[in-house]
Specification:
- The chain is about 40% helix and about 20% strand.
- The protein has 26 helices and 26 strands.
- Helix 1 runs antiparallel to helix 2.
- Bound molecules: 2-(butylsulfanyl)adenosine.
- 2-(butylsulfanyl)adenosine binds near residues 81, 82, 138, 226 and 288.
């Protein structure tokens, strides 16, 4: 029995960790917040009774480790999360816990400030002598990402504080987007053929995580301050007064708020905000209660990942029941077959819903939804609703189970599902029309060929006309110039702009070219790694056709077996090869050789092992690559240097056996200096 509980706790923990990473690390959640909260609630409940099975990664973390790309900075005061209350009873328990902790009588009232729980991402702004010195995301709560350059572009964030702020002041609050601004942004993204966001929160998080601040500047982000971290002098005696102080420094406050004297008033506030929810210009997922008296806050302190003096009272997700009319299959750019639920249109929390994703084959089996079933839908801030479960109308068991197709519904080629993967994919590569259009859209997107003048709609139009079937055709569009001029919406000027934009894209750095190909699993980071490592398109292409390819690729730190297999499958596909030959004639791929600095380790292969005294593994790796070295994950006779730190294990042993030169961090640093 207890073995079973341990197993359940571990399974829940693994799921939570996975969803944390998707949400915080990639801004790409797979489940709704409500579903996540349920997971967390089940986990917390079990761990309360069986603390011996607690999993540290879940019990102590408040998010995922910071995503790479930004400098990591430790928070002066940890950024914590909030505990959740799901019903009135949980709220009363919260108050009762505080009374017990403070040794107060059972009927003592503890005044709280009640405010909306904004659905965005939290940010910590540090001011020294009234000047903004840095802005950090929450990260894992202890260490955040330095997004100062991006924060400086947001109009709600003062660069210089007004009034008389303490010498050191960290204001914490939420970055978010108004729903209306979000819809406009998505429309603009679509028109430009760029990625659309699932909801305002993802849009806010994605905008904040841009490496180019000018992109952040173009996004309609807002900030409100609701809390603080390190302060060199107290702001006030109560939260209510502290809010006034924060406002006097030049910040916008969270609203509408109320000072509640009793539990009754708190619950009344909750109902009031719940009723106003759809009318507020931004998404909220509940309300937050915070003890007003700051001295009491201090006494109450924290437990694990959340303060004892505050709690989030979550709203129920908006749900509705409707008929599942059909399950259709969509084919994406990478050939992934995604099942889509076609629903009897229904209003869920103010939005008409007619379709919902069913994610994949296993999800359909797990939920056992069948065509004709009545299903529960849920929209929790997300534009794409989730199907929760079927509601048996007595006919469910008589309906046939859905049989997932093993052929691509668009081109008829075989669709394969590799062992251990959730997704089934069409094997036809660039030749499958469904993938072709998606491939084209990806090809012209930012970060890839970046042909801004060629939006999704235009591409779809050219595709329908048969003018553009593969990326190579884009560069031959000029032959349709006279036909294009006769089409509605096209004039001399717009046509020549289009061709100019296309011609500009003929010069393409290798990394962008690799990324533009839309190879499954090969994102921008991996594309850069490949470009940096192999230097030229010819070299990379030859390599993919050689027998050593798999070994060479998987030996790179950052490329796993499944990624390498996808990459090789792409390059071995006959149709793709044909397209690549034509494409390589149309554009000049700029080799990546000049980007790397010439150093003593240029062209050398290095392996890092053990804990280095000052550098993180990622930092050391990046420095080596910048200096022109290849970083491998395992030691072989081809390895030139092994940089060994403390607790180096088998790799060090192997290096010694093979006679590979072993150096320290200090020696490594002097080699690249
Ligand atoms: S106070 C130590 N107030 O919710 C308490 N947080 O689930 C700090 N959030 O990380 C948080 N609205 O991103 C607070 N009015 C509000 C909030 C709020 C949204 C977010 C915040 C926090 C998360 C915790």
């Amino acid at each position: 029995m207890t073995k079973q509980i341990k197993k359940t706790v571990e399974e829940l923990a693994a799921e939570i960790v996975r969803h944390d990473a998707l949400y915080h690390g990639k801004d790409a959640p797979e489940i709704s917040d409500a579903e996540y909260d349920l997971l967390r609630k089940r986990y917390d409940k079990l761990v309360k009774d069986y603390p011996q099975y607690a999993v540290a990664a879940v019990s102590e973390s408040v998010g995922a480790a910071p995503a790479s790309g930004f400098r990591k900075v430790a928070h002066a005061v940890p950024m914590l999360s909030l505990g959740n209350a799901f019903d009135d009873e949980d709220v009363l328990d919260f108050i009762q816990r505080m009374r017990r902790f403070l040794n107060l009588p059972a009927d003592a009232e503890i005044p709280v400030v009640a405010e909306p729980k904004l659905d965005g991402l939290s940010l910590s702004l540090r001011y020294e002598n009234a000047e903004l010195v840095h802005a950090l995301t929450r990260g894992d709560g202890a260490v955040g990402e330095d997004v100062t350059a991006n924060a400086r572009t947001i109009k709600d964030i003062p660069q210089i504080l007004k009034g008389k702020p303490p010498k050191i002041l960290e204001i914490r609050g939420e970055i978010f987007m108004h729903r209306e601004d979000f819809l406009k942004l998505n429309a603009a993204q679509e028109a430009a053929g760029r990625q659309q966001f699932a909801n305002p929160r993802n849009a806010a998080a994605g905008s904040m995580r841009q490496l180019d601040p000018s992109i952040t500047a173009s996004r309609p982000l807002r900030f409100v301050g609701y809390n603080w971290g390190e302060v060199s002098a107290p702001l006030a005696k109560t939260l209510w007064e502290a809010r006034a102080a924060i406002q006097s420094f030049g910040f916008t406050l969270n609203a509408p708020v109320e000072l509640c004297a009793s539990a009754e008033e708190m619950l009344k506030y909750y109902q009031k905000i719940l009723a106003q929810r759809a009318d507020l210009p931004f998404d909220i997922d509940g309300v937050v209660y915070k003890v007003n008296e700051l001295k009491l806050q201090e006494q109450l302190g924290f437990v694990a990942r959340a303060p004892r003096w505050a709690i989030a009272h979550k709203f129920p997700a908006e749900q509705a029941l409707t008929r599942l009319n059909a399950i259709t299959i969509q084919v994406g750019r990478t050939g992934a077959l995604t099942p889509v639920a076609e629903l009897e249109p229904i209003n869920v929390g103010g939005v008409m819903v007619a379709r919902a994703t069913l994610h994949n084959e296993d999800e359909i089996r797990r939920k056992d939804v069948r065509v004709g079933d009545m299903v529960w839908l849920q929209r929790a801030g997300d534009v794409i609703p989730q199907i929760l479960a079927f509601k048996d109308d007595g006919e469910h068991s008589k309906r046939p189970e859905f049989i997932f197709p093993d052929h691509c519904p668009v081109c008829g080629a075989e669709a394969m599902r590799p062992d251990g993967e959730a997704v089934r994919r069409c094997t036809n590569g660039l030749a499958c029309p469904a993938q072709a259009l998606e491939h084209l859209i990806h090809f012209v997107s930012r970060g890839a060929a970046d042909i801004a003048g060629l939006g999704e709609k235009t591409l779809a139009e050219f595709f329908e006309l048969g003018w553009v079937k593969t990326p190579a055709d884009i560069f031959q569009l000029e032959k349709y110039e006279s036909e294009l001029l006769q089409r509605e919406g096209w004039k001399e000027k717009s046509v020549s702009n289009l061709f100019a934009a296309i011609n500009k894209a003929r010069q393409m750095p290798l990394a962008r070219f690799i990324y533009a190909l839309g190879i499954p699993q090969i994102g921008e980071t991996t594309a850069k790694l490949l470009a940096r490592t192999f230097g030229s398109w010819d070299y990379l292409y030859q390599l993919t056709q050689s027998d050593d390819a798999l070994a060479e690729l998987t030996n790179l730190d950052g490329i796993g077996a499944s990624m390498a297999e996808d990459l090789l499958a792409f390059f071995h596909e006959k149709h793709n090869q044909k397209v690549l030959v034509v494409l390589a004639k149309e554009i000049q791929i700029q080799n990546d050789i000049n980007e790397t600095v010439h150093s003593k380790i240029s062209g050398k292969t290095m392996v890092f092992t053990g804990t280095l005294p000052t550098l993180s593994r990622d930092a050391a790796k990046a420095m080596a690559e910048r200096a022109g070295a290849k970083v491998a994950s395992s030691v072989s006779a081809k390895t030139d240097y092994v940089v060994a730190g403390e607790d180096a294990g088998s790799k060090l042993k192997k290096a010694t056996e093979l006679g590979v030169k072993v150096i320290s961090e200090a020696e490594f640093l002097s080699l690249i200096s």
